[in-house]
Write a structure and sequence with these properties.
Layout: H1 3-18, H2 22-32, H3 47-65, H4 69-83, H5 91-107, H6 113-130
Helix pairs in contact: 1-3, 1-5, 1-6, 2-5, 3-4, 3-6, 5-6
Family: Belongs to the globin family.
Pfam families: Globin
Protein name: Globin domain-containing protein
């Protein structure tokens, strides 16, 4: 099965079983990195957190579909923007990994080795794009 179908299938399981996962994803992020929570103090209605997460999902799907041009543009430009929000280096990878972990947990016994491999490949691409470009 193609990478894009494997990602779509796992994300379909996620939305069917867990609905809106914004709360789950950020709870996990702030449990691991409590210092990040204060960055979102201005986001009183959760709108920024919601749209950030949906952009991240879109990037992952775009990378799975290939060639990932949209993801490349968004991740690279957001990486630069996030420097101005004091988001430490390495956090994009953390965020994408949390999305995979939440998806895997919710999929439970329906998570397959092929899904694991598809996610590993997409996360490797996302991680590569999250590195700063050489000056
Ligand atoms: C742990 C990792 C991350 C942290 C801590 C973080 C933090 C933030 C913060 C604090 C803001 C609000 C900035 C402001 O308006 O003052 C923001 C906005 C945003 N972030 Fe992130 N970010 C992370 C990862 C990502 C990733 C991986 C993406 C996309 C692929 C992304 C996309 C966005 C977008 C599009 C916005 C603007 C949302 C809007 O205003 O509608 N972020 N992020």
């Amino acid at each position: 099965m193609a990478q894009t179908d494997l990602l779509t299938d796992s994300l379909t399981l996620l939305s069917e079983r867990a609905g809106d996962v914004t709360g789950l994803v950020y709870a996990r992020l702030f449990a691991a990195y409590p210092e990040l929570e204060d960055l979102f103090l201005m986001d009183t209605d959760g709108g920024v957190r919601g749209s950030m997460l949906s952009q991240a999902f879109e990037c992952l799907m775009d990378l799975a579909e290939g060639p990932g041009t949209m993801a490349e543009t968004v991740i690279r430009s957001e990486r630069v923007n996030h420097d101005t929000y004091d988001v430490p280096a390495g956090m994009f990878e953390v965020f994408f990994d949390i999305i995979r972990d939440v998806t895997k947990e919710v999929a439970g016994s329906d998570w397959s080795p092929l899904m694991e491999a598809a996610w590993a490949s997409v996360l490797a691409d996302a991680s590569r794009l999250s590195q700063p470009l050489p000056a």
